[in-house]
Amino acid sequence: QVQLQESGPGLVKPSETLSLMCTVSGGSISSYYWSWVRQPAGKGLEWIGRIYSSGNTKYNPSLNSRVTMSVDTSKNQFSLTLNSVTAADTAVYYCARVKRVGAIHYYYMDVWGTGTTVTVSS
Amino acid sequence: QSALTQPASVSGSPGQSITISCTGSSSDVGVYNFVSWYQQHPGKAPKVIIFDVTNRPSGISDRFSGSKSGKTASLTISGLQADDEGDYYCASYTTTSTYVFGTGTYVTVL
């Protein structure tokens, strides 16, 4: 059973960089797309972007200039970096796997981490 | 990209059926059959209950069903149960190869 676990600082100062890691256990990171999704308290879900195990990325246009994702297949981990954060970036951040069956990549997320809360405050 | 539009809340009595709408545009819901629905209970991660408009993942009750007409997708929950209470989000693939979620709907079981 594949499991995902987010990790990283729970508190980030305004204008600084938010960095999170997602560790994949119980399965391989290879040949899958992996996504980041966030959710401010009491609000809806926002897709941040996705990365393929080869490193190919696609980001939400609204965050594109501040987001970077990377993958380390040797460690079965992928990461999220968000620059120049403000209070508006305070949220629960989830990592998730995009469903794949054989060579077919679907368009939904079937495995999610439990989420990690990041607060942007001085 | 703009979030897909959902009603803020829907309610129903146990045993009844409810339907949640999800309205997008010709850049997402209207052009692809890649609409999914997620259920989220308080403090928990989202869980997919419908994918590709009408399909249920293994283990999901057949009380959940999905459909689409034009730019609007819908989720129907039949035989409403207390455990169905929570937030529901639609999502769609887009013409710019991104992904967009709906605004979310809170389902109350009366």
Provide the structure class of chain A.
Answer: mainly beta
Return the string of H and E elements of chain A: EEEEEEEEEEE
Oligomeric assembly: heterodimer
Beta content of chain B: 35-45%
Order of helices and strands of chain B: EEEEEEEEE
CA-based gyration radius of chain A: 14 Å
Total E-strand runs of chain A = 11
The CA-CA distance between the termini of chain A, in Å, is: 39 Å
* Helix share, percent of chain A: under 10%
Largest sheet of chain B: 6 strands, mixed
Could you explain the architecture of this structure?
The complex is a heterodimer of chains A (122) and B (110). Chain A is an all-beta fold and 122 residues long. Chain A is 0% helix and 57% strand. In chain B, strands 1, 3, 4, 7, 8 and 9 form a 6-stranded mixed β-sheet that branches. The chains are: A mainly beta (122), B mainly beta (110). At the A-B interface, strand 5, strand 9 and strand 10 of A face strand 3, strand 7 and strand 8 of B.
